[in-house]
Write a structure and sequence with these properties.
By secondary structure, the protein is of the alpha+beta class. The protein has eight helices and seven strands. A hairpin with a 5-residue loop joins strand 5 and strand 6. Helix 5 packs antiparallel against helix 6 and helix 6 packs antiparallel against helix 7. The chain is globular and about 65 Å long. It is found in: Mitochondrion.
Length: 325
């Protein structure tokens, strides 16, 4: 459901990944974009001017003792590096959670396939190749969590819980946004999406209220359906955290109503709509803590992939791979 249906005016998040910038559209807002973060860089502590002057013998012992911090006043270099690394890793995780994993392919319904038999075959071939790579990559991640070849993997994927989780988050976010519950949005959405949604709540006309209702799920023989499920590390470092991302297509009938300051329904504001949304959810996995998985968070909604958009994204990914060699 877009922001215009609730009269919201959320600002767009900064476009980071050019090839896929138009593909991610958070629910009830305009859009956001994806980017693959680079690795961490640790900064060694530099030598201070006091230390250089001490080496030159320009201060007496009493003066030096007065300038030097007491025990506990300053963290050791190793502690500072650890703290800096934790901050950088946390920032990378937040950024990665808010972005579509590069190379994500969201197959549209057959009615939206490209015209022409040749283009249709090319489109489906690209999709089949991506699905194969997706399955192979996910299997390798699960295998890498094994403590031994003949032992069970520590990572429990539980694919069967993905669709119910996506449906629950989709409903919770829409209800919280309509009701203006900022705390709920901050808890279950990614940081970037939450910031955009909170801004849209603040920009509402004074005294205007909204209600959102999921009337029922539609097209049940075909929806909901898992469109993509990917796991990828956020950097090339050994045992780096992984982002787990899933795209679930949900078809539903929704009702939106607007109210004035007196709680009265604004005439003509009640609307029912049948929509199909590709809901994106994400979490992170930490290999260093026994492959524990964080809570799923709501990322937004994603537009279906087109042949043109995919070929453009594929070209960008190929150039990045060549530059990394």
């Amino acid at each position: 459901m877009s922001s215009t249906r609730l009269g919201l005016r959320a600002g767009e998040l900064a476009s980071i990944r050019r090839a896929a910038s138009a593909r991610l559209t958070p629910v009830l807002t305009n859009r956001t974009s994806a980017h693959r973060p680079s690795g961490l860089r640790l900064v060694a502590p530099s030598t201070t001017s006091q230390e250089r002057r001490y080496a030159g013998g320009r201060y007496n012992r009493a003066a030096l003792q007065g300038m030097m911090p007491r025990i506990g006043d300053q963290a050791s270099p190793s502690v500072e590096n650890t703290q800096r690394m934790s901050v950088n890793m946390g920032e990378m995780l937040e950024r990665a959670l808010s972005m579509v994993v590069p190379g994500t392919f969201v197959l549209p319904p057959p009615s939206q396939f490209p015209k022409g038999l040749g283009k249709k075959l090319k489109f489906l071939t690209q999709w089949a190749l991506i699905k194969f790579q997706e399955a192979l990559t996910n299997a390798s991640v699960v295998f890498s969590s094994k403590p031994g070849i003949f032992k069970r993997a520590n990572l429990k994927v539980k694919r069967g819980s993905i669709i119910p989780t996506a449906k629950a988050l989709h409903r919770a976010v829409s209800e919280a946004l309509a009701a203006g519950h900022k705390g709920t949005l901050s808890k279950i959405c990614t940081r970037h999406l939450a910031g955009s949604l909170l801004a849209s709540i603040d920009s509402r006309p004074r005294g205007r209220h909204y209600s959102w209702e999921l009337v029922n799920y539609t097209k049940k023989p075909f929806y909901p359906r898992l469109k993509a499920h990917r796991m990828t590390p956020i950097s090339t470092e050994r045992n780096a955290p992984l982002i787990r991302q899933a795209i679930v297509a949900i078809s539903s009938k929704q009702r939106v109503v607007q109210y004035n300051a007196k709680g009265e329904v604004i005439p003509g504001s009640e609307k029912e709509m049948d929509v199909v949304e590709n809901v994106a959810i994400a979490c992170h996995i930490d290999p260093k803590s026994g492959w524990k998985q964080s809570e799923w968070r709501y990322l937004g909604t994603i537009r279906p992939t087109t042949l043109d958009s995919w070929m453009q994204e594929k070209a960008v990914l190929n150039r990045r791979m060549m530059n990394n060699k």
